[in-house]
Design the sequence.
């Protein structure tokens, strides 16, 4: 079965790789689409074997996960820890890497976004990454960590409270 090339479905798959399980409501909040639209695309992904329903704790929520994933600990947290550890290992050894692998593209930016734009940027990044995550791997390919964190910057003096809107 070919990978889905629909941008919403690609974003949903990328979100599931990041979070392990999501409901259509959680996906809608993260990606900036409606819950109904996310629900429809999750059902379509399930129809073709990409996702499946995950165990539910309250009987009401309908969480989804990537197909064939075991129920268990938060693998997203483990993945983030491994990415951080892997990046530190890369920094220590990148001088000895082959020339065509000796560069990385680490960068950061401070953006001024509205809530909907934050979700839109996240969905666009997930869609780009999903194109590479679902393709057939070539012999020359190596695993590459792609880490993007989009979150509102809170003032240091107000760490535990949300600043008031002006």
Sequence:
């Amino acid at each position: 079965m070919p990978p889905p090339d629909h941008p919403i479905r690609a974003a949903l798959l990328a979100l599931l790789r990041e979070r392990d399980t999501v409901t259509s409501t959680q996906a809608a909040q993260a990606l900036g689409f409606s819950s109904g639209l996310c629900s429809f695309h999750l059902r379509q992904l399930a129809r073709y074997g990409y996702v499946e329903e995950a165990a539910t704790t309250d009987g009401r929520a309908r969480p989804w996960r990537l197909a064939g994933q075991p129920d268990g600990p938060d693998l997203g947290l483990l993945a983030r820890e491994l990415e951080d550890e892997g990046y530190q290992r890369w920094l220590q050894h990148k001088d000895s890497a082959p020339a065509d692998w000796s560069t990385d593209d680490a960068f950061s930016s401070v953006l001024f976004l509205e809530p909907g734009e934050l979700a839109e940027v996240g969905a666009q990044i997930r869609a780009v990454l999903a194109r590479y995550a679902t393709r057939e791997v070539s012999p020359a390919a190596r695993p590459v960590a792609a880490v993007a964190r989009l979150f509102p910057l809170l003032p240091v003096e107000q760490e535990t409270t949300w600043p008031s809107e002006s």
